Amino acid sequence: LPIRAGSYTDELVKTAKTIASPGRGILAIDESNATCGKRLASIGLDNTETNRQAYRQLLLTTPGLGEYISGAILFEETLYQLTTDGKKFVDCLRDQNIVPGIKVDKGLVPLPGSNNESWCQGLDGLASRSAEYYNHGARFAKWRTVVSIPSGPSALAVKEAAWGLARYAAISQDNGLVPIVEPEILLDGDHSIERTLEVAEKVWSEVFFYLAENNVVFEGILLKPSMVTPGAEHKEKASPETVAKYTLTMLKRRVPPAVPGIMFLSGGQSEMEATLNLNAMNQAPNPWHVSFSYARALQNSVLKAWQGLPENVVAAQNSLLERAKANSLAQLGKYSA
Ligand code: 13P
User: Fold this and answer.
1) Which residues pair with 118 in a beta bridge?
2) Which of 59, 127, 230, 256 could serve as a FRET partner for 95 with CA atoms 20 to 30 Å apart?
3) How many angstroms is it from 294 CA to the middle of ligand 1?
4) Could you tell me the EC number(s) of this protein (predicted)?
5) Is the ipTM, as predicted for this complex, more than 0.95?
6) End-to-end Cα distance, the chain
């Protein structure tokens, strides 16, 4: 059937399908230098380029990673960085059939006129930056904006988040990068799961309205939603079955089946929760590939095992493989704790 012609359309569809392949998901290691610094501080390391390189090298050279991981999202520094042996990180990924991705947004700033909410910067110069990232081997992109439930969300904040994501998605596709569309609905707050569902439906309906208005090819995007859960401070926790039911209901109401992959963020869930929730969502067939794009839920144990010591690298890599394999099984609906 006809699909909007663009110089990269076929390649975008192919890239998105490769990333959304059975039993695989995304390793998100695109922490900004500031956020990476916090992770390193948690094990007593200074936030130097050498320490960031050592940590990313540990992750990206893990033998066998490509069996469970189809894409890795990098921060700009890592896209251009080499291993200590002088090999491009991008080539380490390609050798394992892992698609390199790049975080392209420029972070959150206060949104004037809103209820103390924020908006995401980065559209200025995005086309030329995206073309350059493509030339350096990136084939997909990520833009994370956030929506806060306790702060409203205001109609203004939702509209700005949705419009920014849609402009970014159109520009990414125009430059050969599959856009990951990520309006993260923050976990903070004591609201119920029903309230999260209501907000998520509102946010995704606006996102798809503007994606369509911007002529984005749905077959060439990936989504990165938050799971629908109660707020982190809500009195009751939801079981994986409940999270799966609410999250899939939201997706079925709002996301066309033309979208190939839904790659969830972990958003502060524990490693085990993130795996069990994903597994619950894959107990029956879905219209899309339902998988993971976790940062914290794939890295917490790795950092603890590493402690910045060369003699711990193999143990840390084994711990990454263990989480990656667990989530791979969860993608197939075959994980048991
Ligand atoms: P978490 O899985 O730690 O939420 O991070 C995913 C991510 O990349 C957020 O943009």
Assistant:
1) 110
2) 127
3) 5
4) 4.1.2.13
5) no
6) 43
